């Protein structure tokens, strides 16, 4: 019985060499960089269930800044439990939050959150109690390497990673005429992914309406 084909980091490297028709050391040495840049491109342009993560925890009283999860890219929702009620925090700019709650030493029930910087959140008000929270966010999938051979992208949309890496390789190969070719392949794959994600969102909304 033939085993179904599946992408791994090693097979992706081999595919890139095959598509590029290059096996020389200078090109092969750059392949991990092409893959890394393709992963960043995907994380910047894609939003879907595979990129969505949910974490929970407890806020600390009198602490207004919090570390974002590793590989965070964009927040979908941020909520806390106030008694038995879930309360969603509103996203605002950092300056707005500081104006709303000018003294972070004062405490209260958080109402807003802001991106303090790329790696931290800022809450206003500063929590007065240890509220349980739930954070839903889009992340960059676990980067691939010789140890991490697969991730969500290799399992569910391998063509995106292949076309993205080949697109990133073209400037190195000095083949500008092929940039449009692989960009077309990549853009079509992104379009199909987004349409599929949109269908899932509509199906989920219908299920909630019918329930």
In short:
This protein has 211 residues and is an alpha+beta fold.
How is the quaternary structure best described? single chain
Q: Total number of β-strand segments?
A: 10
Helix content: 40-55%
Q: How many whole angstroms does the radius of gyration measure?
A: 22 Å
Q: Which structural class is indicated by helix and strand composition? A: alpha+beta
Main sheet makeup: 4 strands, antiparallel
Helical segment tally?
Answer: 6
Poorly predicted segments: 202-209
Q: What count of structural domains? A: 2
The run of helices and strands is HHEEEEEHEEEEEHHH
What number is the mean pLDDT?
90
The share of residues in extended strands comes to 15-25%
Termini separation? 43 Å
| Overall shape | elongated
Strands across the major sheet, in which order? Answer: 1-10-3-4
């Amino acid at each position: 019985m033939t085993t179904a084909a599946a992408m791994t980091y090693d097979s992706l490297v081999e595919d890139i060499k095959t598509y590029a028709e290059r096996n020389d050391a200078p090109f092969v040495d750059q392949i991990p960089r092409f893959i890394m840049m393709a992963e960043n491109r995907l994380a910047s342009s894609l939003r879907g269930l595979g990129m969505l993560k949910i974490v929970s925890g407890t806020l600390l009283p009198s602490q207004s800044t919090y570390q974002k999860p590793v590989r965070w890219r964009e927040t979908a929702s941020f909520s806390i439990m106030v008694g038995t009620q879930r309360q969603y925090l509103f996203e605002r700019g950092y300056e707005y939050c500081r104006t709303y709650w000018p003294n972070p030493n004062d405490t209260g029930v958080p109402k807003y959150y802001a991106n303090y910087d790329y790696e931290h959140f800022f809450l206003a008000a500063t929590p007065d109690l240890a509220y349980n929270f739930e954070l839903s966010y889009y992340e960059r999938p676990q980067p691939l390497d010789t140890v991490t051979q697969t991730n969500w992208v290799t399992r569910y949309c391998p063509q995106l990673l292949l076309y993205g890496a080949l697109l990133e390789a073209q400037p190195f190969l000095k083949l500008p005429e092929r940039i449009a070719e692989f960009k077309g392949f990549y853009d079509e794959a992104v379009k199909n992914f987004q349409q599929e994600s949109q269908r899932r969102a509509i199906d989920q909304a219908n299920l909630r309406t019918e329930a």
